[in-house]
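Give me structure tokens for this 531-residue protein.
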Amino acid sequence: MSRRASIWRWQLIFVSTTVAIAVLVAALKPTVFATPLFTAGLVLALLTTIVALVLPWERIPPAAILVVPMVDIAAIGLTTRAPDIRLGFLWVIPITWIATYASMIAVLGGIALITAFLFTIANQSGVVSDVVLRVLITAFALGFLGATIRIGVRRSRAARRLLRRGSEQIDRVARRAATHERRMAQIIDALGTALVTVGEDGAILRMNDAYRRLYGIDADGSALPAPAVEYDDREGDPVPMRRTVLARAAHGERLDGERVWLYDAEGVWRALEVDTLPMAGDADQGAMVLVTIDDVTARLAAAEERRLMSAILTHELRNPLTAIVGHVDLLRERADLPARMADQLAVVAGAAERMQDLVTTALDASRPVARVLSEPVDLHALVHASVSSFLPTAAAGRLQVTVTGAAALLIYGDAFRLRQVIDNLLSNAVKYTPAGGSVVVSLGVAEDARAELVVADTGVGMAPADVERLFQPYFRGERAEHSGVPGTGLGLVAVRDIVTAHGGAVDVHSRIGEGTRMRVRLPRRPERNDA
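Here you go.
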């Protein structure tokens, strides 16, 4: 409340009480107005009120405000001259005013002024001791009233300061929380992954900008004129409302990499991968589910492009390979070839024919691993043939390749596919082993009675993080990328798929600088395979 309003309030309370009493006196005992000081007191109260109402208190020093209640004390003191009229109780109003806004010293000053009026002007009768007693009782009573009000005011102000500080602290915390929430919202909106939280009633509680753009929702949460529609497949059937992503999430269904096709608001087909994660709710909102949606359209398009490019390349490789095989056959038919050259041409012819078979298989993009045969295969013979084809490369790199273990190991499978496994493992071992190193191929029977093929090298090795991703398509470890050795990251994927199709397993052990150990375990008895 402003200073002016406070002064007006107290002064109007005082003067209205005084005027009301004056009216009663005029009606019941008009002879009192014959006392000049009584009338002077009433006039002084009215004049003080008029002055208080017109003065610009904002421009006057705060200490000057005490003049008003002190003049009111004087006005009441003048009215005490009238006989049989006890108006001294009105001193309670200015004393309360002073105690509320001034110090205890000012309260004592007002009581001292009241005491002076009681001894000098007030109409006192009786013996001196009685007069003194009445004056002291009045002074003590007003002093107790002033002290009580002063203490209450101080406590009230202290409590108000504490409340103000608490309120300011709460405001600061609220502002910080609001700022933090805005920052989190900006971070979430900046993500490329669409995020949306759904309540157990299916209502959207919150979503980021990526979700709005994907599903055609404006900033206010309203659907745009052309909302996105979910489909069970590209150009398939629309998904019923009860089976949409949000409906399934609201019903508590757990989605993990779920594929959904979306025909968005711009008329573009998008492939989505959806995951759900239950979240802790509160008493008001209940259970919540976080739905994350990744747009994998570009990833699928890139994979399809790689597949088509691979098919084109393998198709184009068939012609030069046919030429190589034909000319090698012509050379082998010559009778004047040295024996050593005939053997070398036989190795070239065998490699070219195998390459033709690999190209033919690669053209079947719909089946990464073709149907495997189930026929007797001597694993040792396959290893010996594979090692023979890599010996010139190993010799050029000053590598020692050794075959140990069982001299014959019969299993059932597809000899061509199994040879592909051995070639890929040997190729990696030879490529990533520095000059002077060694590669050891061992054959035996594992503890679970399966045939075991181990290819161990003393090469550069791999970090644990690279080992975990070794069988991911197109993945190459950091050291392999920086080694300058060419590669596609598909060889070990083919190894895993072929071994799995045979009912076997592959495991890897590698350390940086210590080499790599690849172990393949295959069943020794024929297994039915309908792949």
